[in-house]
């Protein structure tokens, strides 16, 4: 007896071949289909992929959505939601590994890519510290605090304490602006100056303060603010 293949099986094969030939040519929903093939092996996933893109705008939005948000879309189970989140976590891990234990000042574009991927779409403000050794290699990347939509408390004394604990000789401050505007506020400038003053006491260099947003970033060093 001949078993008839599901109508979507040929589509899956064709899409895989197109991906192999020209991965950059696929639109977001088709890349998402390829991911969903792995989580949902016996179902037409094109409608699910299109619904996900419609709800979360693009592939980045889908992969950054919480499991609870993903499960609101018809056809997305808990296992499928976790699978999608795993892809996002793996991507961030790769970007992070590209900059860890590397001379940061010589890998600036990779650092910005990592920070943008991990912080630009956050709905709340987060403040993180990048600690460097004498070779300006990134030895620690730590979230120092999370706050409200437009403010995260940060304290120079605590920053210096942690820098000494990890044996850092330099640091870079990073925080995001959920508003989408990467322009520094008066509070951002005051904090930067306070940290620079505190760091000088311990002979620790402050290389930069970077503000990340969905519309770009601001480097205090590049803007002449440090």
Task: Give an account of the 3D structure.
The chain has 226 residues and is of the alpha+beta class. It has helices spanning 8-21, 28-39, 46-56, 59-64, 67-70, 78-99, 108-119, 156-166, 186-201, and strands at residues 126-132, 138-146, 170-176, 205-213, 216-219. It folds into two domains: 8-94, Orthogonal Bundle (DNA polymerase, domain 1), CATH 1.10.150.20; 102-219, Cytidine Deaminase, domain 2 (3-Layer(aba) Sandwich). Strands 2-1-3-4-5 form a five-stranded mixed β-sheet, with helices on both faces. The longest helix has 22 residues, at 78-99. The chain starts with 7 loop residues before the first helix and ends in a 7-residue tail after the last strand. The mean pLDDT is 87.
